[in-house]
Design brief:
Elements lengths: L8 H16 L9 E4 L11 E13 L2 E13 L2 E5 L8 E5 L4 E6 L4 E6 H5 L4 H5 L10 E4 L4 E3 L2 E3 L2 E8 L6 E12 L5 H15 L12 E13 L1 H8 L11 E15 L12 E3 L10
């Protein structure tokens, strides 16, 4: 899953697209069934100015081997494409705000599924899913580092957020979280991503609680979460109604931009050609493992 920092609205905004892709298209192991082919038109040249960046994501959880993978994002004010070549099944997600659609694409079988953006944004609890463990507590601590770092050719100053969270159900899962972010407002082409996010949030209306936009591009984010089992979890485990071992002791996630550049995209970058066929189901969904 793509990292979704949970300390502020700005942090949730920068990488929430990946989580969206993970909940929009349910996983299905059914056989592909192709329907009539369809065509998604290309963007006009004036809509094709934007930003491209590649992110290396690493996750580590107690009791499980560490995993790493790469995602490449391509963004314009009205479109976003997410590519993950090593993912089985769906390996491309295409957002077209001008068409009001999101497409989950398997480029190997040349099949896809589509969903209305307005329907996605209307899901019950959508904002809560994005902002899991979000919120602020009196004990939260924010510190700014002194030494600058260089990430993908840009300098940034690390900021650390220490946050104590409580589960949405009292007594279930609590924990401590430390997030370190390094961001720069100087990234060329960042305005395209800001515009995309602004337009997407506007489509969500009042349901989108995190309506702010960030003034900086996040070059790296690392998050270390230490979980604590609440009293309800312990009681349910004791009487055999819940397996407390499902709650990890810790989870570490990191996301580092390896390269970023301002791009004049070919109009076909955000196009789905007519030889792609709509499928009733796809072998694997989400765009991320």
């Amino acid at each position: 899953m793509i990292l979704t920092p949970c300390i502020s609205r700005a942090h949730k905004g920068i990488l929430f697209f990946g989580l969206l892709c993970g909940i929009v298209f349910p996983v299905s192991m059914q056989t592909n069934k192709a329907l009539a082919s369809s065509s998604v038109p290309a963007l006009s040249p004036e809509q094709s100015q934007g930003l491209r960046w590649t992110v290396e994501i690493r996750t580590e959880q107690s009791g499980k081997p560490a995993q790493s993978h790469q995602l490449t994002y391509s963004a314009t004010p009205t479109a976003l494409r997410i590519d993950q070549p090593d993912n089985k099944g769906v390996n491309r997600i295409l957002w077209r705000l001008d068409l009001g659609k999101v497409y989950a694409i398997d480029t190997r079988t040349r099949t896809y599924q589509e969903q209305s953006i307005k329907k996605i944004l209307s899901y019950q609890g959508f904002s809560d899913l994005i902002g899991q463990h979000a919120g602020s507590n009196p004990g939260d601590i924010h510190t700014i580092g002194h030494a600058q770092e260089t990430v993908a050719g840009y300098t940034c100053t690390p900021e650390t957020y220490r946050h104590k969270f409580r589960g949405s159900v009292v007594g279930m899962i609590n924990g401590d979280q430390e997030t370190v972010v390094c961001a720069s407002p100087e990234v060329r082409g960042f305005q395209a991503l800001q515009s995309f996010r602004k337009h997407l949030l506007a489509m969500g209306g009042s349901k989108m609680k995190f309506s702010g936009t960030s003034s900086a591009f996040y070059l790296s984010i690392s998050r270390d979460t230490r979980y604590k089992k609440g009293f309800i979890i312990r009681i349910l485990n004791a009487i055999g109604l819940y397996d407390a071992s499902k709650v990890p002791a810790f989870q570490k996630e990191s996301s580092v931009v390896r390269n970023v550049s301002q791009v004049s995209f070919a109009p076909s970058t955000f196009r789905l050609s007519s030889d792609y066929r709509k499928a009733l189901s796809l072998p694997q969904a989400g765009g991320t493992p």
